Amino acid sequence: MAEPPAGRPLRDATRAVHAGLPAAADGRPFLPGPTFAAPFHLSGDPANSDYVYGRYGNPTWTAYEQAIGALEGGEAVVFASGQAAVAAVMMPLLRPGDVLVVPSDGYFTVRKLANEHLGERGVEVREVPTPGPGWREAIEGATLVWLETPSNPGLDVCDVAGLCQAVHAAGGLVAVDNTLATPLGQLPLTLGADYSMAADTKAMSGHSDLLMGHVAVRDPARAEALRSFRTLTGALAGPFEAWLAHRSLATLAVRLERQCETAGALARALAERPDVEAVRYPGLPSDPAHALASRQMSRFGPVLTFTLAGRERAERFLAACELIAEATSFGGVHSTAERRARWGSDAVPEGLIRLSVGCEDADDLLTDVARALDEAVG
Ligand SMILES: Cc1ncc(COP(=O)(O)O)c(C=O)c1O
Fold this sequence. Notes:
Aspartate Aminotransferase, domain 1, 2 domains, alpha/beta, 7-stranded mixed β-sheet, 5-stranded mixed β-sheet, single chain, Aspartate Aminotransferase, domain 2
């Protein structure tokens, strides 16, 4: 990787393009292609070989993990999905009698995993809303405090550095689900977290064509424990997906720049409309999360939410959009939206739309949304 110009660190776009690439060598590609292997040639003592069997390690994972590690400021371990990454932090750490604190307004399958698999086996699961003072009491005696900031779909924010200090003082560990922000928007390990996790399915890979997840840590023993859990449970990323994710990471900063700028413009336009209620975007100066988000985040992410007057109006809006596909998930180059209450798993109004802003032209998107809102009036 190139040296930074004297006296200052490399900027995000440069770091994303170069992350995890091998040193330049004549006749070699910039990013080596995926290595497809179950067993690797292995003679004699396995300790003498970097790669022995595909469940233990793969050079395509290694390259992607080095790339993510460089952006996160830690050591990264890659998993088959975001959910596999969540499980790899929670499952080996928590024993009967331990306390796990999770956000009540975060991604619902994280809560479901906590309650159905850990709660059922004697772990005490406490749920706390992301904004507000509920954490102070809930972290007492906690083994692991799971934060998701901004939360999905609430888009609320909590004070990661302050909570890390309080949890550590009380003897617990902190994990942050950083999926919405990505490490180019927020650095949980720098803010003091023990684990920074993300669903790379979303903005990290950004093309809506794969599932993947990672966990980054600073403590080598924790990295080893995560790798061991992956090896023993087999929650593996395929080499082709890991290669695609690495290839896509190169444009993360460029994508986010466009997405966040358009998300801000859309949020402002939506907030002006009398037929739209409760626009949430941490980058919107009037948003309740804005002040804290501005201190903690360098970019506000591609996702915003707003509320229309009821289910039918929201469904008419989605049907009228021509450039925004109705789909779950977020962070991709294609704009997507959904009526979040259709899942029945989040405490959100029937008319709440979660919109993920893609890389289309901003004016085209603003025009499409304005027209679809007009049509939705019915
Ligand atoms: C905040 C958050 N964390 C974790 C996940 C799980 O990721 P995956 O779907 O890749 O398992 C999601 C998925 O939507 C998410 O939004």
